Amino acid sequence: MSKLFIGGLAWHTEEATLRQKFEEFGPVEEAVVVKDRDTGRSRGFGFVRYTQEGDAQKAIATMNNVEFDGRTIRVDKASDNGPRGGFGRGGGYGRGFGGPAPYGMAPPGHGYQVPAPNMYAPMPYGRGYPPPQQAYGAPPQGTLRMRHGGNS
């Protein structure tokens, strides 16, 4: 068996499209486009598994750095780092093939580094963006300026 990492997929690429293209090189045992667990949107990469090593090598030689579905993709042999158990059969994270991994950990077998976690304290506003700034001269929201005493 030989598993390939397919990087740089278009957001709209479906598993059926991925499978159909890679079946040109031999029978595909499994083809998966990895999706975000919360949004269901493609994460831009996937995996294809062949039963024959030679078919996988043909796919790498033909498809690496080639335009597919509107984007230039990267095709490489998937590394075997990460939890064992095989993708799609309960092994790995999420739905197997490297679905959502704990933050800062690489999905199993794709062979690329995940960026380190953000080292700044989490922001209580939105999704990591700073809160909107006040206009010049306006008092900060949530505070009242009261004058104490008489006329000055």
From TrEMBL:
One GO molecular-function entry: RNA binding
Domain spans labelled RRM: 2-80
InterPro entries per record: Nucleotide-bd_a/b_plait_sf (IPR012677), RBD_domain_sf (IPR035979), RRM2_NsCP33-like (IPR048289), RRM_dom (IPR000504), SLIRP/GR-RBP-like (IPR052462)
PROSITE patterns linked: RRM
Region of interest: Disordered: 74-93, 124-152
Keyword Transferase (UniProt): no
Ranges of biased composition (kind: Gly residues): 83-93
tRNA-binding among keywords: no
One Pfam family in the UniProt entry: RRM_1
Keywords per UniProt: RNA-binding
Stated name of the protein: RRM domain-containing protein
